[in-house]
Design goal:
It is a single chain. By secondary structure, the chain is α+β, with helices and mostly antiparallel strands. 35% of the residues lie in helices and 18% in strands. It has four helices and five strands; from the N terminus they run ββαββααβα. The strands form two sheets. Strands 1-2-5 form a three-stranded antiparallel beta sheet. A two-stranded antiparallel sheet has the order 3-4. Helix 1 (24-32) runs antiparallel to helix 3 (62-70). The radius of gyration is 15 Å and the shape is globular.
Length: 94
């Protein structure tokens, strides 16, 4: 599953959610964001429309952090940074 907030893309590898007992991503979303992630059949779900996600999303990154440290490492968040590729090439940090 993947979805977008304002400027970030959240990717959840649902196969890694199998057997997760903490559901840390959902707890983090409720605690630090606006409850974008819910839980259905033991896996995170998003029921909001794309417009609603853009409005509600706080881009807090807590779901990824908590999933990596207390869950099964199923979440990756991509944060595009304009000009980063050019900067890295210019400074030899590719």
């Amino acid at each position: 599953m993947q979805f977008h907030e304002r400027t970030i893309k959240i990717i959840i590898d649902e196969s890694k959610c199998d057997g997760c007992t903490t559901h840390a991503c959902v707890d983090a979303c409720k605690t630090f964001s606006r409850s974008i992630l819910g839980l259905k059949d033991g896996k995170p779900v998003v029921e909001d429309s794309a417009d609603e996600l853009a409005r509600k999303g706080t881009e807090c990154l807590a779901c990824e952090y908590e999933c990596w440290f207390r869950g099964n490492g199923a979440i990756t968040i991509e944060v595009p940074i304009k000009g980063l590729s050019e900067y890295r090439q210019r400074h030899g940090t590719n």
